Amino acid sequence: MSSRLLSLHIYPVKSCAGIDLTEAVLDRAGLAHDRRWMLVDDEGRFMTQRQWPAMALIRTALDGGVLRLTAPGLEPLEVPLDGSELAESVEQVEVWRDTVPARAEHPRASEWLSRFLGRPCRLVKVDEQARRPARSEWVQRWREKHPDLAEPFEGDHVFGFADGFPLLVVNQASLDDLNARLAAQGHAPVPMNRFRPNIVIEGEWGAYEEDYTAMATVGPARIAFVKPCTRCSVPDVDQDSAVQGDQPGRTLAAYRTLEPGVVFGVNAIVAEQQGVRLRVGDPVELELDF
């Protein structure tokens, strides 16, 4: 069986629930609308399920020109996609080591989110002029290792509020292997949404062969796999209930601790293409570098 694009996912608000798509537009910044909004605390630092697992219960949808947020016990909140309710002033917010220009959404959005989470927070959107490059040390390492492939991936790979790269790709065979290990220990399997991928690939990719894959052609797009994705406690959060446990993190740590840390999936950058459209079922060609 040849490889194919099994599923597509975006997360409009960083660390809130995602949206499953049948098709999506891709450019060097990643999938359209992915992680363009973020919750920040009083100091402008990003908030995630690591500290506030209840964020998993904030559902997102894109409908009729609005981002619609829903959460248990609250009326839906609608945020215009056209930016008409954004603050005029630009502020600096923090995502890990990066400082990113952003603009706050209408105060009613912050009030809604603060009420649900039980703590003060604000909803911000990445500024249109923001230029946040992918982790240069990993991109450069990849280019040096694959000089024959590097040219289409030259230049900055800017994106929104994702942790460090425009795309996260996960191999279905790797999840199947993880779930087999969990079952052998008497644990329940975990769904793919625990790992919050953008692109899921299935087919001739064996379990964890993403560790040894240089790049892929996915439909009309070329993407380079530049860094194994390190994992924190978020995969231990049930995305349907927001209950946090210790699996699959404990099992992963026992056999997937590599150079960067405990890893699952791979971070990717995108070749110099604008507005290509990916569709579930697109063929995938993988270039291995064993």
From TrEMBL:
It comes from the Bacteria. PROSITE patterns: MOSC. Residues 132-287 form the MOSC domain. SUPFAM superfamilies: MOSC N-terminal domain-like (SSF141673), PK beta-barrel domain-like (SSF50800). One of its GO terms (molecular function) is catalytic activity. PANTHER family: MITOCHONDRIAL AMIDOXIME REDUCING COMPONENT 1, MOLYBDOPTERIN COFACTOR SULFURASE MOSC. This is MOSC domain-containing protein. It comes from Bordetella genomosp. 13. The lineage of its organism: Bacteria, Pseudomonadati, Pseudomonadota, Betaproteobacteria, Burkholderiales.
